[in-house]
Amino acid sequence: MHKTGRVRLYVMLASILLFIASLTQTAYYVSNANDGECPAFLALLTGWVGLGIGGQLAWLANPLLLLSWIFYMRKKKAALYTSMGALLVAISFTFYREIVINEAGTMGDITGYGRGYFLWLASIGLMAAATIITRLTSHD
Q1: At residue 53, does pLDDT exceed 90?
Q2: Which of 17, 44, 89, 117 stands the most exposed, by the fewest C-beta atoms within 10 Å?
């Protein structure tokens, strides 16, 4: 593997590590819930519920990020589109005022964002920046 390929691999691994680190932290804080916070791993596992109940699309950043990791080494244009899509969708979470807090569809007010959200955003932002730089400096 040549130097450029190695650097790209390290950047992708850094993004994956940031994502994994985010899962160990609090994603966001919410009122009307038992403990007032949502662990990021729980947000990842259950966030899809908000797609059908609350129309909240931020969770879709996760499969888009996964696709950008898959595409990054070979399909630069696809990686660019998926990582930028993931970034936009992830940032959209800051526009939500409330979120589904249980399977019954009960809504809770979002009162703040935890380290998990910002690490998740950093993971996605790193991939987005890397795909932009790769696309701009690529000769193919």
Answers
A1: no
A2: 17
